[in-house]
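Figure 2 data, in text form.
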Amino acid sequence: MAKLIQKCGYIKAGGGGAYMKYIATREGVELIENNAPATGKQKALIADVLHDFPDSKELFEYEDYLAKPTAGNASAFLSAALDRNAHTIQDGDVYMKYIATRPRAEKHGEHGLFSSSLHVDLDAAIRELEAHRGNTWTFIYSLCRADAARLGYDRAESWRNLLMAHHADFAAAMRISPEHLHWYAAFHDEGYHPHVHMMLWSDDSKQGFLNESGVKAMRSVMTNEIFKQDMHQLYVQKDLSYKELTGEARETMRSLIEKMQGQVCDSPVIEQQMQELVIALGKTKGKKQYGYLPKNVKEIVDSVVNELAKQPEVAACYEAWNKLRDELEAYYKDSPRKRLPLSNQKDFRAIKNMVIQEAENVRLGIISFEDSETENTPVSVEELEKAVARDDTRAMYRLGKLCLTGELVEKDTKTAVAWFRQAAEQGDAYAQYALGKLYLQGREVPQGKDEALHWMESSAAQGNVYAQYLIDRMDEQRDPSILLAATKLLRHASRIFREQAVTTNPQGIRVDSRRRKQLLRKRLALGHKIDDHEEPVQGQQHMT
């Protein structure tokens, strides 16, 4: 796999180290062609090097040595490891002379040192460094021979152009003003690992700081530039893969969403949890939104969501959504995405408030309708009355809904029942179902089991699965609203999955920290809690 190895460190003014003598006489460990097994002396020295410089295991040469522990590979590894760590065992000026004059350095005259100028006066550069009393940072960038040759980084001029082009990036990563940054470098055309040594410092003693994020930024800049051609081809391939995989994921979700929207979900566990939530909400004061609820009530809500996530269609749809997000985030991130339970996934936090709202509907006896999501076109009372004059049974039914809920008109249960009955007698399945539920619940009208059964059977005969579901459980003496709790939540979940499948994108929607803090202050000023996940209220009826 193509990669760039980066090694960074620093040299303190006046520093030195234990390997200076060995570095000065290290021709004995230069690259040699020898396929005999590594000698005992080489193995011992390799053990010492790995102990002193454990990151040497990242080197290409170490991989070669492990695969084939010959004397030649051992020599190549020792040469590379000691060269890579020379900055830790030499004074700054000695190090500069070392990288400029050591064997295999590409020289321009008597040495190979370069900077913004190709021809550098080595003695003047050393005097400049000796005058510097702060830290000097060192970087080594190494490529395998095949990549260096293929990408054109097997000569000093290419590296010099690269370093010059990213002077400002180095300065930013090290928190140095570009005009105060000084750097020198030398290219070493080593057998298996052509590489460049770089020394950087600031002539302003108040500037210069390098942390982990700065080191990563420098490596990212160099990698992106060196492998830009490879990365372009990779992104083209990933883009094709992304379109194919996300298309499949969205098609899977679409199929599952349709299935969720058109079926009844029978879950005694959710039914029991919703009953507990109804009771808990009755004892809770204040706003009935997740962020405002006591911890024990939030736990009930979470348990409902987690149980809902176990339903086969929801589990399959959430898995498809997770695969979609995995692919999207892999498109622009290196680290793998962490998958969370549905109740902890912020993209689906709206489900929590839907659970709360449905429990509140049950607690307050609010009438709602299964067909709400099929009525996407809002109409006025005047338009409905004109349609009723044309004997439109669906308009009769919708007027009955408005009268029952008090939306757009004054609440009038008697008139609502009259509209439902008129439409039901003319065969409207929704009106038959609504009328049957009213008589089954016995809240808005006197309870009548026979009347309820009559209208439910008429609706079920036309394919209404909700009516048949209630008929099958009519003898159980359970609240129809609680009986349909899982079904209602399944429908809500399908809508949220549908929204998520459409809005997810590979770039993501990001808000900078300053803007995020401003929004948080505004929310707190309006009385919201810091963990409030209140969702906007939709202008439509809820389902029961």
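Caption note: Residues 5-19+85-226 form a domain with the BirA Bifunctional Protein; domain 2 fold (CATH 3.30.930).
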